[in-house]
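User: Hi! I have a protein structure encoded as tokens and I'd like to know what sequence might fold into it. I'm fairly new to this, so please keep things simple.
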């Protein structure tokens, strides 16, 4: 900052005049120094405001800084919404009041209608700042509010400075109202100087830019989160069999992360998530199955082994019913032919018994195939061999064409040992993890969200390298991916909306998770923490009755930060 000097005329020989001149020079110099200090402070305030991204924190800092360099005893910040001025910050040092913002309490006052009688509303309507030396001497505006406040609290409102906050489009977004400037020497309330007014207007301009930037960032993040939730909802609604899975995994993942964050002992005592890391994990968990948008719905919803768009067991059963009826008809025809040849009653009974035996055999096959179609039916080698034997049987239809009792595709599906999908269909299902990684990798995430594709794409990776889509192992898997692998499996095991299986009881879920940990699939420390800390129970208590769209925001800031990439 360049130095400033004040040139004066030569002192007079009159001692009294010299004394006056010295006093004037001193006052001017003090004023200039104070003004330069305020300008430097204003510049510093502008830099500090530009680095604040929490709106409540920003609004509080605006009023704090405005009051500091104008020496205002009190300050109020209104934000303009829907033709009303809403209290955002309300501070009064003399009365020890600090409401709104990041650290203050809730403001109980209702919004102010935009009526010209109210001074703040007048400023908002007319677009011009107002500087009032004493509100009790002013007659142009309605000061009923401040006077009632004074009467109730014993406070004395005097000087008032009201300035506009305008955004880059010249729209009024708020009003800053400062009350009772304090004399630096006496501490008494004095009018706001013209210098304070000009500098406060400059601060208000900087504040408006900062507020607009924060709101723009917030709006962009809200828009992105809305897109994430729309995609997640579309995937869940695509299949009633997995409806709500993504939401539940997101909630369960955040609950486990919060549990880890709060641990002060054990293997995870050094892992803590700051607010941005928790936000990143939140988005990743909401997007972990985005690749399922490419998975055919008939595979996602395949609740029976023969199911495609419909359950083809009905075709098989209809085929068997046709053969039963055909066998009965053939038995009757044999009896008629035998009667024509004068067969005895014993011969007729033998034909009838043989027909019944063949029908029972067909009905037994029909029932066996129906049972094999159930995904909960685990098939051993004997059943697989019987299915193959049935598939080798043929029959002649009404057109005289020979057909197999089971088609090759029917045999393949009915021979699934466990579950409802074939190996080919399983490969298609697994593709969703690769597609998740591929789709998310094409999104230009900001720096604080850059790990989302890696977290979301790793939720099917296994510690032993047997997972997919990349076959990562051990420390190659991001910690958040290991965490999500546990919650994704736990949710699938406990889910009650899958038509091809029942929800497992807690003890059975614990057994499966520990078994997968012993096999080297899941992180054993994460599994034990999930079980011992009853993370699933905590998730149910916290989110069971929560609105569908709102996942948790994670722990409060202030904890030490750890790497989000590995344990």
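Assistant: Happy to help. Inverse folding works backwards from shape to sequence: for each of the 567 positions I chose a residue that suits the local structure. Here it is:
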């Amino acid at each position: 900052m360049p130095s400033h000097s004040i040139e004066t005329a030569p002192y007079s020989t009159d001692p009294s005049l010299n004394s006056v001149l010295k006093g004037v020079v001193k006052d001017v110099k003090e004023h200039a120094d104070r003004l330069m200090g305020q300008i430097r402070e204003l510049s510093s305030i502008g830099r500090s405001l530009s680095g604040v991204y929490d709106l409540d924190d920003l609004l509080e800092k605006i009023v704090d800084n405005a009051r500091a360099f104008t020496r205002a005893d009190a300050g109020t910040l209104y934000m303009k919404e829907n033709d009303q001025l809403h209290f955002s910050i309300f501070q009064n040092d003399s009365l020890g009041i600090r409401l709104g913002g990041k650290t203050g309490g809730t403001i109980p006052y209702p919004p102010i209608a935009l009526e010209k009688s109210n001074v703040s509303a007048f400023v908002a309507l007319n677009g011009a700042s107002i500087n009032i030396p004493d509100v009790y001497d002013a007659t142009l505006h309605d000061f009923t509010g401040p006077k009632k406040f004074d009467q109730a609290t014993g406070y004395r409102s005097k000087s008032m400075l009201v300035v506009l906050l305008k955004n880059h489009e010249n729209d009024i977004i708020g009003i800053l109202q400062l009350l009772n400037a304090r004399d630096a020497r006496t501490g008494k309330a004095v009018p706001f100087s013209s210098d304070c007014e000009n500098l406060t207007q400059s601060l208000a301009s900087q504040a408006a830019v900062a507020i607009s930037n924060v709101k723009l960032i917030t709006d962009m993040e809200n828009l992105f989160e809305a897109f994430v939730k729309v995609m997640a909802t579309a995937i869940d609604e695509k299949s009633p069999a997995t409806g709500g899975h993504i939401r539940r995994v997101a909630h369960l993942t955040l609950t486990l992360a919060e549990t880890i964050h709060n641990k002060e002992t054990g293997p995870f005592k050094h892992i803590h998530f700051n607010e941005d890391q928790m936000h990143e994990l939140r988005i990743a968990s909401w997007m972990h199955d985005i690749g399922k948008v490419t998975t055919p719905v008939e595979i996602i919803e395949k609740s029976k082994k023969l199911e495609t768009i419909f359950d083809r067991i009905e075709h098989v059963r209809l085929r068997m019913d046709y053969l039963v009826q055909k066998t009965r008809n053939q038995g009757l025809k044999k009896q008629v032919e035998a009667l024509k040849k004068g067969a005895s009653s014993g011969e007729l009974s033998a034909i009838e018994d043989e027909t019944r035996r063949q029908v029972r055999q067909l009905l037994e096959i029909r029932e066996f195939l129906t049972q094999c179609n159930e995904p909960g039916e685990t098939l051993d080698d004997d059943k697989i061999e019987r299915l193959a034997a049935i598939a080798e049987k043929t029959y002649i239809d009404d057109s005289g064409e020979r057909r197999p009792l089971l088609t090759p595709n029917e045999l393949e599906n009915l021979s699934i040992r466990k579950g409802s999908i074939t190996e080919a269909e399983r490969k298609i299902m697994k593709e969703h993890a690769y597609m998740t990684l591929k789709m998310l990798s094409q999104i230009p995430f900001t720096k604080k969200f850059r790990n989302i594709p890696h977290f979301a794409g790793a939720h099917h990776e296994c510690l032993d390298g047997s997972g997919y889509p990349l076959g990562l192992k051990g420390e190659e898997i991001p910690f958040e991916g290991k965490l999500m692998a546990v919650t994704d499996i736990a949710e699938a095991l406990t889910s009650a909306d899958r038509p091809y299986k029942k929800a497992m009881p807690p003890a059975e879920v614990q057994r499966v998770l520990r078994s997968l940990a012993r096999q080297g699939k899941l992180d054993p420390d994460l599994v034990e923490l999930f079980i011992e800390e009853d993370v699933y129970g905590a998730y149910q208590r916290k989110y069971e009755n929560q609105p569908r769209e709102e996942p948790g925001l994670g722990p409060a800031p202030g904890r030490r930060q750890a790497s989000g990439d590995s344990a």
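A useful reference point when you look it over: Residues 239-300+424-543 form a domain with the Hypothetical protein af1432 fold (CATH 1.10.3210.10). Feel free to ask if any position seems puzzling.
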